[in-house]
Write the structure tokens for this entry.
Amino acid sequence: MTSRVALFALAAVIGFGSLVGSTSSSHAYTTDFRWANNSGYVTCVRGVNQRAQAMRPQMRGAYVADGTSGCNRIFYGHN
């Protein structure tokens, strides 16, 4: 029983460490809201979300992901 707890604790520490390590290399942090001042980008993403609402639920996720990636490419040059 003790070895299971130790194994779980080790896995949790490794998982948490990899999560923290991956955030420093991402393009945007969760507190980076500079995109909110870009009205063209916000309008693009809103349009994607509004068009997605008219779709079947099974299609929405992929459409929003592709549309948001398109807005990112147009306004920021990356996905």
